[in-house]
Amino acid sequence: MSDFDRVRIGVVSISDRASSGVYEDKGIPALKEWLTRALRNPINWETRLIPDEQEGISATLRELVDECRCDLVLTTGGTGPAPRDVTPEATLAVADKVMPGFGEQMRQISLRFVPTAILSRQVAVIRGRALIINLPGQPKSIAETLEGLKDDQGQPVVHGIFAAVPYCIDLIGGPYIETDESVCKAFRPKSAQRPAKSA
Description:
Structural class: alpha/beta
Number of strands: 8
Mean pLDDT: 94
Radius of gyration: 16 Å
Oligomer: single chain
Order of helices and strands: EHHEHEHEHEEHEEH
Number of helices: 7
Strand content: 15-25%
Shape: globular
């Protein structure tokens, strides 16, 4: 029996073509693989593969938070400037609070690799006691934005956004999320830290 809090995570891949079977979805496997490596907590998954329809995306986010009681919801896809890219609008439509720092930091990370990172429109919001974050569509970019950039010694050059996620979830009344520091070191003020546990 694990001493770590159980966490419920919603993972949503938003793609017209993947959801209709034109090609295989890569977003959900990439998110689950990274989170499984990064978190020490036991995870209950809620996965959804849906098309780029604004009302449908909003409805899915409401379901995952209000009915499935997810603590964290991560979306991938639909954050560019194309006409069918409506994930940010759908996410903002269900928000109680907007958390702009997440989108700002994701673009900072991605700009280290490509100048077109300024075209990405990811947002993060609080709904109830859940944090919802839009992530990029490519598996490589998902890992980079969550984990950040490290030098040859494994020290952070640019912090990934996930370093701030556990403390954010603390502040909104969610479970205490603990990470594998070799993947992503979560930051909390000393007053908010619990004694370390062994697995």
